[in-house]
Each structure stands twice: as structure tokens, then as C-alpha cells.
Specification:
By secondary structure, the chain is of the alpha+beta class. Helices cover 17% and strands 42% of the residues.
């Protein structure tokens, strides 16, 4: 396992917003003790509100986070593979970040995009080969 890192499947557009350094918290219903780097896997499923109406989704999201994100409305978000990595620095139950939506927030830092690597995801954290070119 020395060439493996943990990975986490995240729905789009959240996965891309994380690796671009725009989203600093990943919300989950469960806690984790993991700290450190992990691979960001863009899952096949889209956020349902984004899939239904991307323009309205990004307009409402822009208002909530205080940053114009509408330019991403027509972006082709990759799905079904590793798109980057980030560092999980904390798991919190409260945060001032506009991205925090409760139960648990995985506080993220040092996002880095990589070349897309198609792969299957998995539940929770799962192991992937870490030979990813960034």
C-alpha cells in the first residue's frame, strides 16, 4: 500500500470547486479521523440541483458564498475519475465558512488539480494508486 493514497468520491460540481481552491469545506453526514492528503474523485452523479438547472444553481450559490461563480455554469465537469488532491486538515461540527452546511465539515487545504484519471469510486474513503501526474 505504500503507493496508495486515500481517495474520496465527491459529486460535481463540488469536486471541481474544491480542487480549484474555491470550496474549503466538504460536508458529510459522517465524521473522519483521517488527516492529510487524499485524492479527489469526481463521482458519476451530479448534485441534483445543479443537474436540474445549472444557471440557477450557480446564481444561488454565488449569493450564498459571496463570490460570483456563474462563469462555471457551462463548464464540462469531468466525472468518473480522479481530478486532483487536497489535504484534510480538520473535521468540524461548526464553521464560519459559507460552504459549511452541517453535520460534519471536512476542512480542506492545498488543493491541486491533476490530469484526469478514469477510475471507480467507492463509499467513504477508499484506496487508490497515488501515481497521479499533477
Amino acid at each position: 500500500m505504500k503507493n496508495e493514497l486515500k481517495a474520496l468520491s465527491i459529486r460535481q460540481p463540488w469536486a471541481s470547486l474544491i480542487i480549484w481552491g474555491l470550496k474549503d469545506i466538504e460536508n458529510r453526514a459522517w465524521s473522519t479521523d483521517h488527516r492529510g492528503k487524499f485524492l479527489v474523485h469526481a463521482g458519476w452523479n451530479l448534485n441534483k440541483d445543479f443537474a436540474a438547472d445549472p444557471r440557477t444553481f450557480f446564481e444561488q450559490l454565488s449569493e450564498r458564498v459571496g463570490r460570483d461563480l456563474t462563469k462555471y455554469t457551462d463548464f464540462d465537469f469531468p466525472r468518473g475519475g480522479i481530478i486532483g488532491q487536497a489535504t484534510l486538515v480538520d473535521c468540524v461540527t461548526n464553521s464560519n465558512s459559507p460552504w459549511y452546511a452541517g453535520n460534519y465539515g471536512f476542512v480542506l487545504a492545498d488543493p491541486c488539480e491533476c490530469n484526469f484519471q478514469p477510475s471507480r469510486g467507492g463509499p467513504g474513503f477508499f484506496f487508490m494508486n497515488s501515481a497521479i501526474s499533477t
